[in-house]
Amino acid sequence: MLRFIYVSGLFGALLTTSCNARRDTDEHEQETHRTEAKPAPVAIRPNLADSLQLMVRQLDTARLIGCYDEDFARLMSLHHAGAQRLAAVQISQGKDSTLRAMAQHVVKSHEKDTHVLTLALRRDPPGGQEYRPGNARDPFVRRITAALAPLRQLPPRPGSVDADFATLMQLHHRSGVALAQTELAFGRNAEVKDAARRIVRDQQQEIRQFQRWLRAHTATSGR
C-alpha cells in the first residue's frame, strides 16, 4: 500500500564564535589541532541499486491527493528523477559509449517530460477528489501499486556498471510504462495524457534498445 507522507526540507546551520582573552585563544588553538588530526571523510560513490531504492522510497512516501492527473504527474516526476540518477551513475562510471549516450538522452528527455507535466497542471489545475488514495481496492490505487511492485524485487545483475545499468533501466522503464498506461486509463487532462502517450512510446523503444545491447554483450562475453 502506498504511504502518503509529504517529505520536503531545507537544512542549514550557522556557527558563530568569539575569542577574547588568552584562554579563549589557547582553547581555539587546541581545537584547531584536534580538528586537523581528524581523518578526512571518505566520499561514497553513488551506485545503481541505491539510486533505484531511493526512488522507490520517494514513490512510497509521495503525498497523493486523490486526483488522477495530479497524482500521476507527481509519481511520474519522482519516477523520472530516479531514472536521471541512474543515468548520472552511468555517465560518471560507465564505459560503454552507446549506453553513456542513452543515459545522456534519459537525463534530457526526462527533464522535458517533467516540465511538460508541470506546465499542463499549472494551466489546468485538478478539480475535486476523484478517488481515495487510502483505499487499496480502488482501481486506480491497484494499478499504481501493480506498476511499482516490480521495483521492489531487483533482478540478478551481471556485475559491470554498463550491464547493470541496462538491466535496471529495463525494469525502471517497464514500471514507467505501466504508470503512464494507468494515466491513459483514468486521466482527464488532455495534455497530461498526451505526455503519458509519449512516455509509453519512448520508454518501450528504449526498453528494446537496452534488450538488444544486453543480448549482444551477453553473447560476446559468453564466447
TrEMBL record:
InterPro entries: DUF305_CopM-like, Ferritin-like. This is DUF305 domain-containing protein. Gene3D superfamilies: 1.20.1260.10. Residues 33-117, 159-214 form the DUF305 domain. Keywords: Plasmid. Pfam families: DUF305. The keyword Ribonucleoprotein does not apply.
